[in-house]
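Minutes, project check-in
Item: structure for the 369-residue chain
Input as provided by the requester:
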Amino acid sequence: MGLGRFSYTPLVPALVEGGSLGAAQAGYIGAFNLLGYLVGALAALRIRSVLGEIRMLKICLAISLACLGASVPDFGFVWLAFWRFVVGIAVAVIMIGALTIVTRHAPPDRLGRATGICFTGVGIGILLSGTLVPVLLGHGLVAAWTGIALLGAVAVGVGFWGLGAVPASLPQISQNPETEATGRPPVTPAVLCLIGGQTMFSLGLVPHTIYWVDYIVRGLGHDIGLGGFHWVLFGLGAISGTYLWGRLADRMGFRPGLVLVFTTLAAGIVLPVFEPAMWSLVFSSLVVGAQPGFSAIISGRTHQIVGPRHMAQVWRWMALTSGVFQASGGYVYVALFDVSGDYTLIFVLGAGAMALGALISMFPARSIG
């Protein structure tokens, strides 16, 4: 997931400066990835009912690797946009399927840590891409894409090895489509708040996932090495943040944990455009990089409210709604930047979405599981 979704970001300045893509095209490819995530969220439960949980995850891992490999040749905007769209689909299905497994089997008192560990892999993918992309770019874009694909092959091998143990040790949920369609959770205010919070998070994250390295390199005039360094920090934040945020949620509770993480993310997004000093860039990379920890906390909060029976369905609703807004919001962000060339505007909008998410998360809720 980390390589499939986030390895593109440190490549954006090189793609634009090397002439492979225009600035607007590079942004729109990021938006196509978000659109693919929406399609994957729409299809996830139906795919699971046909293929089964474990086979679905294995196939999506293989598709993700194929997408990374297909990105190696420079066949232009349409080619790359298509494969970024497809990998977005696969990543959404992986997220929904993997979280369902983890939350179903984690001990209740360690749910935050378990979901945090699940998302640590995203941080590892970000860290590896940030470390290697600047080095590999010295040998050209083909070398950079090839290196990412080779890392993806290792990750797929690890994933297949781990998933191979699941059927023998963990019970599987029903794969009957009729069963999936019954017993749906009620659409309560608590569920709507979960959906709203996930949506605000998705909107707020767009500026960093598309423009963070580009802002550092082309916006502030630093070299690609420093941009890669900050993507490494982004990955380090993701690795440490997932586990630390998860442990914090176990201690202080998932609702206050959500409010705190939203507030911290809002500050991390907006600070560097008003104070672009090195310390604020480092703060932003680490804090916003820890964003997978949000997914760990809100997945735990969702499980807490709706229970294991409704987890996959409610998470799908959250992914669908946030996917619609993230995909459309992504195009809006790119269009605004294309017209204005103003990084400040899009980062302020992202921080505002996170702040609104903090307000939504303050709403108290009872379990309906």
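Outcome recorded: The CA atoms of residues 98 and 308 lie 13 Å apart.
No further action items on this chain.
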